[in-house]
């Protein structure tokens, strides 16, 4: 009897792909490269008129470009994981800082160019604008109602889902928002009425070094993948292949893929009896790649390739995601990071403004990508803190920093130290949770600020350490012996140690012994103009040659130029004799190879050279940059080079100062410049009156108007009361005209009367005379006779004289008197239910 033939089961087939019913977006713009293999429909109609494109040439590797629907595909140059980790992203700094509640803009020399308070600005949001709106068209809308704005003050936000746009407009004019809302609100209603509302003023952001930054987004999305079915004749072979894929032994195009357990039935002789399904297979994989991944003895009988979940290539996908972000505001920086092996494409972006980053993250996280019906975009708003410290300090602190890394990793915080550049290293902490990052930043702040060497609560210091003499050489030996870094803070007369706890303790003991043996004294020789010129023309060189190295330092930074002598009284006397006699040696002009510091006139330690080719000690340069803050209040803060015997005078550019200083020092110098600026403008700016509150507000422009009884200070516009400043830190409200706390309904003059006691005296007289103030306008009213219905002579309000309740008409007032007080006059209710006749 003939045996029945074995039933050959076909491989499982994927269900019908619904995408075949949808039109291919790439075909619509003439850019589909899959031809008949494309899962989407290719209608016969030609691409839309006006579209333009250029196909990617597979052989020449040219980039696909299109301006269809406003999208231009940008060729991407992804970084490897290692490059992304250690390549510091470009940073934009507009030299604006938020200090004491104001926005301070700086210029070269770290001088303040402008201080703006939040009260100087106002902003509006225009909604329901046409989809094609631009900065120019929004400015034109405002111009149509006689409100002039610059296009740079307009930010347009596209809303593709609604087919509209919105725009934020910020202007340095406190009345702008009110004026624009009033004029636009008065326009005749139309079918597409523009909506306008005032909004909080956006805060500009500058450099993120040594400050917390919340403008950075991490974006990721799944790469295009396909499903692959593997068919085998035996269960054992299918099981082996499944286990190899599961363990990561077998890979497709060097990427891990997921394998499902074999399914099928025992059917001897059927080469397709058992099926292993692979998911997450790269879109670019072909049948030969699958066979190459599996050794010959385990190879399947048949391989069936499913369709990709989406067909957008790498460049198009990246450009599309970037365009989604730019709908919320301009990007300062964009970078794609991938090693080609991960399952997701990862990118990073940084907005110029934090508000744009927050809005983009809240809107786009979990949103379907326009080139896939199943792939969602993941967007994470990151909090970043950066520090720039000298390389030698980082090396000394590396063990302490490394000890914190496990804690940070447990808090999902990422730490990276970028490679050294010009003697500095940038450190970065990053994470999603701003609270844990703030704690980590505080810990790192504590580490990188070092510790001050002290004994019995007093700082270890000696005047001899201000110069590069014998004591300084011994200090450098302490550094070498104990593996720490010691920095001289000459402004505070402190020694700051950088290292681990045990080396720091040993170094402190060594410094105690060093300073115990210092018996010399420091003397100051102040120079007049003639003496300073003598010193610059060779006199100081003569002094050094006769006293010996390490005993004299030339201070040309102080307002009063001086020579510092470190030595005995005899050394001081000898120096005074030389200065008095004006003994001058040969004049030696600085050269490109000169190693003399431009500040202390000794060999430069850890030399720094400026763009004008002048040399400084690292410590001298730091203290020199702080010097303008301690000058007179009449001169502006500006850092200029003192090279070439003090005659250079070049204003040092801000980028150069930022490059030559640590981030903490640079920000401290900007803060010192800001403080000096506020000191020089006491009539323009005031500090919040609350103790220990450093917030600043702009004082109202005032005029003094004499009156018969008092001198009244009011705003320059007599019809507008002075603004009230409410401190964002302590929430205390302060009048910007008289700088006292009083209600807006009380004038400055009334407040002064109240404080002085005059107001109380007046109130006593008014009560004695039976005079009451109108509840509406405060006009004094005296009742002579008649009923208890009174009409204010100032604002014409109808008033019940018994309880001072106000009414719009006399009739309502009479009705109230009859109902509440038993009549329009005569019987008056008193406290305790006692009645009397008025």
Question: What's the quick description here?
Answer:
The chain is an alpha+beta fold and 838 residues long.
Give your account of this protein's structure:
The chain is α+β, with helices and mostly antiparallel strands and 838 residues long. Among the domains are: 1-73, no CATH class; 122-200, RRM (RNA recognition motif) domain (Alpha-Beta Plaits); 207-222 and 310-436, RRM (RNA recognition motif) domain (Alpha-Beta Plaits); 225-305; 450-519, Ribosomal Protein S8, Chain: A, domain 1 (2-Layer Sandwich); 685-758, no CATH class; 772-837, no CATH class. It is built from 20 helices and 44 strands. The strands form 15 sheets. Strands 10, 16, 17, 18, 19, 20 and 21 form a seven-stranded antiparallel beta sheet that branches. Strands 11, 12, 13, 14 and 15 form a five-stranded antiparallel beta sheet that branches. A four-stranded antiparallel beta sheet has the order 7-8-6-9, covered by helices on one side. α11 packs antiparallel against α12 and α13 (529-547) packs across α14 (569-581). It is flat, with a radius of gyration of 39 Å. The relative contact order is 0.07. Mean pLDDT is 77; it is low at 1-21, 25-31, 44-70, 204-209, 702-719 and 827-838.
Task: Give a quick set of tags describing it.
about 850 residues; 20 helices; 5-stranded antiparallel β-sheet; alpha+beta; about 30% helix; disordered N terminus; Alpha-Beta Plaits
Mean pLDDT over the full residue set: 77
Question: How far apart are the first and last residues' alpha carbons, in Å?
Answer: 131 Å
Radius of gyration: 39 Å
CATH fold-level label of the domain at 207-222 and 310-436: Alpha-Beta Plaits
User: Any guess at the CATH architecture of the domain at 207-222 and 310-436?
Assistant: 2-Layer Sandwich
DSSP helix count?
20
For the record, what is the CATH homologous superfamily label of the domain at 207-222 and 310-436?
A: RRM (RNA recognition motif) domain
Number of strands: 44
Q: Can you summarize the main beta sheet? A: 7 strands, antiparallel
């Amino acid at each position: 009897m003939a045996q029945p033939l074995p039933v050959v089961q076909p491989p499982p087939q994927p269900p019908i792909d619904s995408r075949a019913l949808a039109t291919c977006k790439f075909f619509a713009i003439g850019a589909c490269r899959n031809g008949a293999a494309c899962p989407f429909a290719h209608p016969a109609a030609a691409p839309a008129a006006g579209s333009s494109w250029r196909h990617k040439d597979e052989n020449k590797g040219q980039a696909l470009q299109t301006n269809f629907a406003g999208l231009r595909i940008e060729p991407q140059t992804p970084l490897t994981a290692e490059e992304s980790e250690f390549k510091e992203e470009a940073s934009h700094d507009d030299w604006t800082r938020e200090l004491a509640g104001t926005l301070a803009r700086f210029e070269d020399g770290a001088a303040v160019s402008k201080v703006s308070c939040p009260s100087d600005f106002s902003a509006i949001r225009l909604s329901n604008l046409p989809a094609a709106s631009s900065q120019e068209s929004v400015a034109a809308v405002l111009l149509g109602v006689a409100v002039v704005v610059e296009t740079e003050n307009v930010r347009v936000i596209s809303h593709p889902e609604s087919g509209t746009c919105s725009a934020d407009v910020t202007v340095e004019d406190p009345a702008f928002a009110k004026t624009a809302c009033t004029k636009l609100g008065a326009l005749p209603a139309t079918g597409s009425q523009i909506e306008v509302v005032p909004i909080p003023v956006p805060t500009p952001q500058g450099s993120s070094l040594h400050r917390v930054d919340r403008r950075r987004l991490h974006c990721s999305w799944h790469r295009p993948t396909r499903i692959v079915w593997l068919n085998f004749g035996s269960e054992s072979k299918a099981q082996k292949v499944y286990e190899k894929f599961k363990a990561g032994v077998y890979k497709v195009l060097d990427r891990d893929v997921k394998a499902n357990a074999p399914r099928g039935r025992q059917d001897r002789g059927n080469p397709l009896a058992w099926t292993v399904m692979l998911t997450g297979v790269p879109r670019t994989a072909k049948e030969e790649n699958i066979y190459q991944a599996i050794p010959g003895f385990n190879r399947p009988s048949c391989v069936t390739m499913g369709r990709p979940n989406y067909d957008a290539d790498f460049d198009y996908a990246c450009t599309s995601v970037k365009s989604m972000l730019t709908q919320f505001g301009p990007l300062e920086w964009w970078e794609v990071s991938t090693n080609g092996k991960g399952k997701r494409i990862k990118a990073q972006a940084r907005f110029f403004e934090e508000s744009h980053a927050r809005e983009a993250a809240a809107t786009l996280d979990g949103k379907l990508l326009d080139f896939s019906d199943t792939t969602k975009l993941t967007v994470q708003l990151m909090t970043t803190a950066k520090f720039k410290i000298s390389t030698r300090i980082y090396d000394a602190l590396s063990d302490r920093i490394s000890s914190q890394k496990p804690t940070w990793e447990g808090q999902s915080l990422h730490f990276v130290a970028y490679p050294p550049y010009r003697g500095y290293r940038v450190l970065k902490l990053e994470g999603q949770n701003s609270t844990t990052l703030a704690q980590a930043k505080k810990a790192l702040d504590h580490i990188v600020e070092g510790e001050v060497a002290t004994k019995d609560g007093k700082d270890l210091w000696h005047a001899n350490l201000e110069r590069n003499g014998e004591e300084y050489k011994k200090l450098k030996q302490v550094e070498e012996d104990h593996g720490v870094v010691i920095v001289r803070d000459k402004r505070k007369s402190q020694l700051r140690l950088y290292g681990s706890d045990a080396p720091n303790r040993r170094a402190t003991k060594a410094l105690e012994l060093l300073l115990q043996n210092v018996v010399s004294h420091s003397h100051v020789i102040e120079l007049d103009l003639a003496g300073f010129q003598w010193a610059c023309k060779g006199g100081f060189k003569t002094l050094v040659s006769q006293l010996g190295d390490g005993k004299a330092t030339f201070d040309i930074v102080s307002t009063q130029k001086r020579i510092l002598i470190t030595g005995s009284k005899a050394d001081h006397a000898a120096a005074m004799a030389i200065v008095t006699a004006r003994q001058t040696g040969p004049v030696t002009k600085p050269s490109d190879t000169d190693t003399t510091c431009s500040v202390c006139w000794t060999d430069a330690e850890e030399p720094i050279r400026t763009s004008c080719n002048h040399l400084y000690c690292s410590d001298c340069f730091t203290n020199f940059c702080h010097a303008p803050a301690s000058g007179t209040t009449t001169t502006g803060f500006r850092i200029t080079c003192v090279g070439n015997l003090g005659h250079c005078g070049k204003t040092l550019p801000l980028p150069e100062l930022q490059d030559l200083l640590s981030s903490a020092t640079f920000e401290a110098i900007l803060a010192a410049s800001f403080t000096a600026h506020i000191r020089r403008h006491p009539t323009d700016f005031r500090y919040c009156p609350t103790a220990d509150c450093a917030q600043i507000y702009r004082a109202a422009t005032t005029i003094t108007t004499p009156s018969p009884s008092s001198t009244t200070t009011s705003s320059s516009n007599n019809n507008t009361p002075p603004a009230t400043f409410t401190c964002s830190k302590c929430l205390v409200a302060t009048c910007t005209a008289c700088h006292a706390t009083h209600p807006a309904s009380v004038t400055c003059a009334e407040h002064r009367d109240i404080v002085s006691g005059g107001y109380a005296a007046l109130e006593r007289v008014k009560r004695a005379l039976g005079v009451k103030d109108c509840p509406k306008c405060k006009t004094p009213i005296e009742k002579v006779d008649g009923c208890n219905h009174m009409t204010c002579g100032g604002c014409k309000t109808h008033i019940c004289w018994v309880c001072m309740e106000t009414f719009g008409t006399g009739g309502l007032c009479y009705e109230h008197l009859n109902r509440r007080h038993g009549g329009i006059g005569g019987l008056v209710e008193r406290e305790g239910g006692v009645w009397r006749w008025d």
